[in-house]
Amino acid sequence: MPEGHTIHRHARLQRRALAGAPVRAWSPQGRFTEGAARIDGHRLEDIEAVGKHLLYRWEGAQTLHVHLGLFGKYKTFHDDPPPPTETTRLALANGRSVVYLTGPTICELIDPQEEEQLRARLGPDPLSNPDATGRFGDKLSRRRVPIGAALLDQRVVAGVGNVYRAETLFLAGIDPHLPAGSLGGEAAAELWATLVTELRRGERTGRIVTVAPPDVGVRRRADIPGTERLYVYKREGLPCRRCGDGIRSGEMASRLIWWCPTCQAA
Ligand SMILES: [Zn+2]
């Protein structure tokens, strides 16, 4: 499932391509025909990312809410777009650019009250609310589940997925099994700062690279090979890039997590 940095990046790039002008909307697949008709021809004012959710705001129409889920995908074309495929749930186009959406878990129009309910269910988003250190700390302090499970709970923090939870816990030197509530203010603040830094870089570049260049023997981040861009994620049994100890894995919140028993001892 795409993590928050990908969703924010979609919002930014689609905003640049489509916002500020009337947009044609239709549903080639036919499963969103009525909804598309209600936004068709309206001026797109803005696209906002909230965790893993996207909100499209129109002049004179309801807000469009999209969640990609496991299989959802966007494709954007700027010149000479190919026709949409039969599985395209929603097509958005202006004179210059076209965005095709396939396979989303959610594609619906919502009113302000439904948007409020959605926001109330979500914890702070490191990209939209970088100053929410205190709110994040408060949420953690009330959870007894392991910190590795809490990070995947969108009510605690919005936008973190399986790659960032494992990698940021490594960077912050925190054992994923530690109860979230026992973390302490300083550790929670450091973890939050790590989430903000890493998700921001991911949003900017479109890929997740958490490794520091010297840890893989290169000088620049751009030179890090694709196979060496992470510290622990999917590296079970391989030596830790910092200490050489074997990376371990286990299940947490129904997903696998990886960690270094030495670098993340406490
Ligand atoms: Zn290590």
Molecular structure report:
By secondary structure, the chain is α+β, with helices and mostly antiparallel strands. It has seven helices and ten strands. The strands form three sheets. The chain has a four-stranded antiparallel β-sheet. Strands 2-3-4-8 form a four-stranded antiparallel β-sheet, with helices on both faces. A hairpin with a 2-residue loop joins β9 and β10. α4 crosses α7 and α6 crosses α7. The structure holds zinc ion. The site of zinc ion has 7 residues, from loops.
Please give the structural blueprint:
Blueprint: H1 4-18, E1 24-26, H2 33-39, E2 44-50, E3 53-58, E4 61-67, E5 73-77, E6 88-93, E7 98-102, E8 106-110, H3 112-121, H4 133-141, H5 147-150, H6 162-171, H7 185-205, E9 248-252, E10 255-259
Bound molecules: zinc ion.
Search tags:
single chain; 266 residues; alpha+beta; four-stranded antiparallel sheet; 10 strands; binds zinc ion
Cross-sheet strand order for the largest sheet: 1-6-7-5
- How much of the residues is beta strand, in percent? 15-25%
Q: Please write the string of helix (H) and strand (E) elements.
A: HEHEEEEEEEHHHHHEE
Biggest sheet character:
4 strands, antiparallel
The gist of it:
With 266 residues, this protein is an alpha+beta fold. It contains seven helices and ten strands.
